[in-house]
Amino acid sequence: xxxxxxxxxxxxxxxxxxxxxxxxxxxxxxxxxxxxxxxxxxxxxxxxxxxxxxxxxxxxxxxxxxxxxxxxxxxxxxxxxxxxxxxxxxxxxxxxxxxxxxxxxxxxxxxxxxxxxxxxxxxxxxxxxxxxxxxxxxxxxxxxxxxxxxxxxxxxxxxxxxxxxxxxxxxxxxxxxxxxxxxxxxxxxxxxxxxxxxxxxxxxxxxxxxxxxxxxxxxxxxxxxxxxxxxxxxxxxxxxxxxxxxxxxxxxxxxxxxxxxxxxxxxxxxxxxxxxxxxxxxxxxxxxxxxxxxxxxxxxxxxxxxxxxxxxxxxxxxxxxxxxxxxxxxxxxxxxxxxxxxxxxxxxxxxxxxxxxxxxxxxxxxxxxxxxxxxxxxxxxxxxxxxxxxxxxxxxxxxxxxxxxxxxxxxxxxxx
Length: 416
Prior knowledge:
Layout: H1 2-57, H2 65-126, H3 130-138, H4 143-217, H5 220-258, H6 272-283, E1 296-299, E2 302-305, E3 313-316, E4 319-322, E5 328-330, E6 335-343, E7 347-354, E8 357-367, E9 374-375, E10 380-384, E11 386-387, E12 392-401, E13 404-406
Antiparallel strand pairs: 1-4, 2-3, 4-12, 5-10, 6-7, 6-9, 7-8, 8-10, 8-12, 11-12, 12-13
Helix pairs in contact: 1-2, 2-4
């Protein structure tokens, strides 16, 4: 019987190890599930935003290039959501497999526990006579053997109690496992239904995409005229920024000569306070807030092919962020407004200096700041203009370091 008690301890240790492994798995997979769910919510919010913007563009009488660009983004987001759903289905399938195996093990262990407990009950029943227990003790050859027999009977009674508790806990755990298994199977079916729905959405939107591209190709001359107008506006904005940079360089050189110093090699001569702001701006690369509360990047930085016109490439000194009508533009970091001016097309631009860095916000219908004003991170600086022709609400953002144009996408925070 002592051997059986030791065997029970081994059984307990094995069960504890299995429980620890299962617990670790639950913690790890819980984190994965949480991460997937956060990603899913982010994508769905972006799809909701692009759907709203698409509805706004459809208020225009004609199909526009902006409508196609937003639609392209919508399809990309839906494909991203599709990947997320597939990942969640894979995760849940793995979890179902784990739970199924654990349930089988628990059923087997519970059966062993019940059989063991039944044997103990039968043994106890056969030896229920108190005189029999006393005879067992008093028939010992010496005191030590009597003591060991008495301890054995105490351990046996304790072991029986533990077995009963173990059966209760194993039963409760089994019920929980079965409940979680059913819950995961229900989630699996819901995700499969959502997966089928998103495939249908993508198919429908790709058909709309093809129709939009075809309609725009029939307006090739109009698109070329728009492109020339945009290039003209971009050149005007670039010249305005270059002019400000040259003015700052000239002022710094004149000040240095007046003080008998060598002209600074950098564009901007920084005060200690400006140097701190400049350093902080650099340290926040990749985590600067977006210049609008909501939005999607519809034209990236640099050169890329035209979305409709073949063999034509377009260049962008910054990024274009499409958003909803009435949206506000916000400063991406604290700094000083160095210029508020009009740009071709009747809208406005604001340039904010952050030490040796500049952030440029263009296509504003209203401006809330003035030259020389200190602004703070996320402070509203104006209203983003909406073009009544195609109902496009788009902010153009540039970031410069001296005379070097930087990719704003690398500086603002990713959507998470």
